[in-house]
Amino acid sequence: MAKRLKAKPISDKPGSPYRSVTHLDSLANINIPGADTLDKLFDHALAKFGKKDCLGTREILSEENEMQPNGKVFKKLILGTYRWLSYEEVNENITCLGNGLTALGLTPKSTVVIFCETRAEWMIVALTCFKYNFPLVTLYATLGEEAVTYGLNECGASYLVTSVELLESKLKTALPQVSCLKHIIYVDTKTINKSEYPENVEIHSMQAVKELGAKPENSSIQPSRPVPTDLALVMYTSGSTGRPKGVMMMHKNLIAGMTGQCERIPGLGPKDTYIGYLPLAHVLELTAEVSCITYGCRIGYSSPLTLSDQVRASRAGWGANFTSAACSLLAQLPPSEIMDRIYKNVMSKVQEMNYIQRTLFKIGYDYKLEQIKRGYDAPLCNILLFKKVKALLGGNVRMMLSGGAPLSPQTQRFMNICFCCPVGQGYGLTETCGAGTITEVSKYVLGRKIYKLKIIAWDCVFSGGYTNNDKPNPRGEIIIGGPNVSMGYFKNEEKTTEEFSVDENGQRWFCTGDIGEFHPDGCLQIIGGPWASVGSTAGDLHHEMKVLTGPFFLPSLTTLCSDQSYVISFVVPNQKKLTALAEQKGISGTWVDICNHPAMEAEILQEIKEVANKMKLERFEIPIKVRLSPEPWTPETGLVTDAFKLKRKELKNHYLNDIERMYGGK
To answer: What is the average pLDDT across 145-158?
Structure first.
């Protein structure tokens, strides 16, 4: 199974693009005749699934505070059942909102900015913009005030859609620095004090705009439908390497990207439920949700804090969103807080088992791993050992898709084995509409040392510091070509010219900056660059190294090195386990005191070395000094993006004193 040919060059010429063996002659096209724009995809779904559930939201019944051992107070949500909008009801919302925006003065091909958390209203706004030919500009909800101000001023949009929370927490102070905005639409049912905002900006609730569109004098407005080459999105990146860049995507770019994505989700249809919780401003989530809507799969909206009883904002016993929505499909962006937390909780419970139970679990785990490597499953182990683990995701998940960053082999093995479903890893970028390659997910596939991906619908060639004649496998910079490659960067021709190109056949290409190699079976392995486990970071001071996991530290650990003669490491420890270890050694104090204690640093460093040796890392890759970080790396702390990619400049500045100290002041 593993040796079967999956992709190969389309010619014998060195550097020839690789394609899937199922699409050697031509690239794949969506299997919906005439659906060449995003609005037509929804029209198709509306005609086919009109009265079926489309978008669902859980009502928040109440909140309660829960005191944590470290003294922090977390809000626990008590949620009602999902309330679903049918395709027909979503279409009614689209029509009323589109007509209302038109009545406010918005004209076709004029941009609309959405700066909002993932929710049903976000998708309704997007579908409205696709239908009425209003290019949608997306900004991550976790962007700081400076980045939001920059994005708003650069795109020059007059219309902004947001939430009351973001309006009050980030936009209120930014608005005086933004002169282009004329209308702000907030999606909540709350009321706000409009007198606190600039007089030159009109503020409306989304409901009021829909009511305006439903008035008799506006109800007959006909949308100006887009064509495939019209601009659909300007998607601003999460800003991991400086100011966010706006990536321009036409309707045909996004449809090409979704074509390959949908081909690798077997049986996608109205029997499925997808949980929407990742940022819709991320191309993976947006294309995944539009794909689900196209094929009749309903979407239940959630947040990372209410997905499972294992995460902090779900009150145990009140039915997490996985369970309540009967989720069958799930996407994630590693490193995933959800998967990491579930993984840690499961492993903690395994350690608490008696000797016989632990032994049985290990035997079953190892046995199923061997079966998966051969392309088989282990049904008896699923029933006897992994049923309760699978229930943490509601018990119905049949497939997971992971993208945005490489998934560690350890995490993928855990997900494959304990959740009893295949995990497909995708490789792509915002500039390629999230699409480039994806593993086969109809079978249990484990990656090579890092991971392997399969070319499905777009050409991929190599250039740069490596050669196509490298032995045993051709290597080089990955360049992705095809109709999924975007138009370039908004108002940045210099950067567009630098990273995009068009060949003699009119094929558009994007230089990813990642280094990869093709194996004899046609699988692509990333061996260098931002997507790999070894890649450069900001400045000459340090480089990002192997990502390690262990009992006493989180899978989000990242090791950094310098141009010095040794490697140093920055670790986010497992608070529960490290605190217990400190008590065993007679070390007391606050969480910060424990993290700063030399004995704790020594314990973690020894753990890192043991894990590194098991991973067979090179000697120069193993750190000899460690710094324990008492604060997690989350979008809220500003050290990672909304997609959990490292903010290299921020990390460098945050730990600059520690870096200098650990290198002896050099």
So the answer is: 92
> Model confidence over 345-380: pLDDT tens digits?
787 788 888 999 889 999 999 999 898 878 788 999
| Residue among 652, 646, 638 nearest 142 (CA) | 638
Residue 533: pLDDT over 60:
no
Task: Dump pLDDT digits (tens) for 321-339.
Answer: 666 667 889 888 765 556 6
Tell whether 316 is covered by a domain.
Answer: no
Cβ contacts of residue 584 below 8 Å, gap of 6+?
none
Beta bridge partners of 53: 86
- Is-contact 445 439, C-beta < 8 A? yes
Residue 356 lies inside a defined structural domain of this protein: yes
The total of structural domains in the chain comes to: 3
Identify whether residues 490 and 573 lie together within a single domain.
no
Identity of the residue numbered 387: K
Angle between helices 409-418 and 355-373 (to 10 degrees): 100
373, with CB counted inside 10 A (0-12, 13-18, 19+), is middle
Question: Are 372 and 416 in contact, with CB atoms under 8 Å apart?
Answer: yes
Name which of 351, 345, 359, 354 is nearest 392 in CA terms.
345
> Mean of the pLDDT values across residues 597-612?
85
Query: Which residues form the domain of 462?
Result: 7-28+334-395+407-419+442-528
Average confidence score pLDDT of the chain: 80
Q: What length does the chain have?
A: 666
Q: Which residue has the higher pLDDT, 218 or 72?
A: 218
Strands 18-20 and 7-9: antiparallel
Last residue of one domain, picked from the residues 528, 559, 580: 528
User: Using CA atoms, how far apart are residues 161 and 295, in angstroms rounded to an integer?
Assistant: 27
186-233 pLDDT tens trace: 999 888 999 999 999 999 999 999 999 999 999 999 999 999 999 999
- Any idea what the CATH number is for the domain that residue 391 is in? 2.30.38.10
Examine the fold and report which residue of 528, 552, 576 is the final residue of a domain before the chain moves on. 528
Helix axes 283-294, 120-132, angle to 10 degrees: 80
Interatomic CA distance for residues 349 and 352, integer angstroms = 5
User: How far, in Å, CA of 545 to CA of 560, rounded?
Assistant: 6
- Asked if pLDDT for residue 436 goes beyond 90, the answer is no
Residues 187, 284 within the same domain: yes
Q: Please, which residues have CB within 8 angstroms of residue 148's CB and are 6 or more apart in sequence?
A: 115, 139, 170, 171, 174
Helices (H), 427-571: 493-499
- Tell me: do 639 and 510 sit in the same domain: no
The answer to whether the beta carbons of residues 152 and 178 sit under 8 Å apart is yes
Domain membership flag for residue 429: no
Strand partners, 646: 640
What is the pLDDT averaged over residues 486-490?
Answer: 96
Instruction: Identify whether residues 222 and 350 lie together within a single domain.
Output: no
